[in-house]
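User: Could you walk me through two proteins back to back? I'd like the raw sequence and the structure tokens for each, with a short line separating them so I can tell where one ends and the next begins.

Assistant: Of course. Protein one, sequence then structure:
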Amino acid sequence: MAVVIEKSKFISKIFFGVFWIVAITPFFGQEFLPSVYEKLSSPMFALIDLAIIFLGLWTLKRKVDKIILLLFVAVAYISSCIFNDLSIIFFLNGLRLYIAYMMVVPIYNYFFSEESRRNAFVGKMDRALYIFLWFQFPTAVIQCVLYGAYDYVGGSLGWMMSGEMSTLVYLISFYFMHKNWDKDKSYIINIKENWVLILLLLPSFLNETKISFVYLLMYFFFLLPMDRKFIKRMLIFIPSMLVVILIAGYFYLSVTGASDDVMTEQYITMYLTGDDEALTYIEVAVDKGVDEIGDDQGDLFRGIKFAAIPFVQMREPYAPYFGFGVGQFKGGSSIEKSEFAKEFDWLLKGTVMGIFAIIIELGYAGIILIALFWWTVFRKQKDNVRNRQITFYLILTILLLGVYNNAFICVPFYLIFIYISLISQHWNYTK
């Protein structure tokens, strides 16, 4: 028993050490020691990935987790080293981004597997999430004052992490709202009594993360109890949320200084699918080849990047099924970029969406494996109580992120997201 307790304490100390390093280091490093942080951030996060993988392998017990891990490594190896002839070093460097967040599941399951260990861990993790949520407020305000309400407002996650920070702010607040929810009180009273959690959503409106409006709707919608009075509540909810969205939209436009056009259907369509110039850019690539394409287009719209996938896959017969190997979005510093990444730099640079990245690197086999991974996270287990509202919220968020950004390569993001995903399937553990 003594050995088990020591193992538990050791893993807990490493885990929470990793959590706080990745959760706050980017902000302090970028704001106070930018040159030092720039040099050390890459090796630091590589070591963090290795630490998580080490803990995951040490706690790996369930057969289903072992099968998913082996399948993923096998497919990634076949894609990278056999079909695309990438080096082992390149393969391992790209693989660690996927394996690291998969290895978080056995770590959490280890802590959940024994009652006293579980109670101690859930208490520590919930306190960490609450502190993290509060910490986004001052850091986001400071960044907004220094740089304006743009992508540099990523809170403690640092610059260019605005989408990840905004997503986590909503998710953590939503999680605590459900933990504090009193079923014997009305919807409005519960909101009033937890007004602080609503206030802590403010950092998401200090940047240009437009998906925050979707999160805002999801937040209040999935707080509605899903019972026989659901339809009646919806009749009240819809007009109320229209008012909330209008107020939030006015605040967003005031802070960011954006044009009123961002709320129009025309702008949203262009934002998601691109304009005629971007479409022409892709058409020229199809007709004349990428060597003839200039590099002045900048970051392509999300819809345009998805539209370009079939053209890129025509390069190799195996590409639709196995992709071009892991690590295509990395390299350029300590490891040289692949020939594919150099040739298609115009497509890979800038905004990267989760589904887009997986299809490029591992093809549709990768999509199937990632779907299986999430199935293992959300599957119902015997004698456990599932929080359906949080579960639906999380699954919808995963789908949205798949076409919005590649948040699951961000270490603090997946540590928090997967914890809430698992605890929502074991809601009795939160008591």
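----
Protein two, same layout:
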Amino acid sequence: MSERRVRRTIAVLDGVGTVMSAGQSVTDVRYHLNVSQESVIVRNPSGTREMPGAREVHGTLMPPPGQTLPMSGVPLTLLMEDGGEIDFAVTSMSAGEYQIASSGELRDAQQTL
């Protein structure tokens, strides 16, 4: 039996959204997110099987000039223009662009109400 892991981009999300913290709006942002998913491919004498693994979201947020995001210690959520939302952490900031990461699931905001 052999096992191989593969990570694929399954979605690219671009738009304008709102960063929230503790139920309060922090600022609006432009976002560019890459959603990837790991797959585990198992080969054995009876055949090959592919099983979905963990999803990850990485990307950038760009607030308007003069606006900033908390860099650490504060839980943040991005509300996207399509109604989706995701919890994230800021990993770095450079030239007004914030790098973010999340291993949580994208949620449909309509279902979480």
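The mean pLDDT is 89.

Let me know if you want the two compared in more detail.
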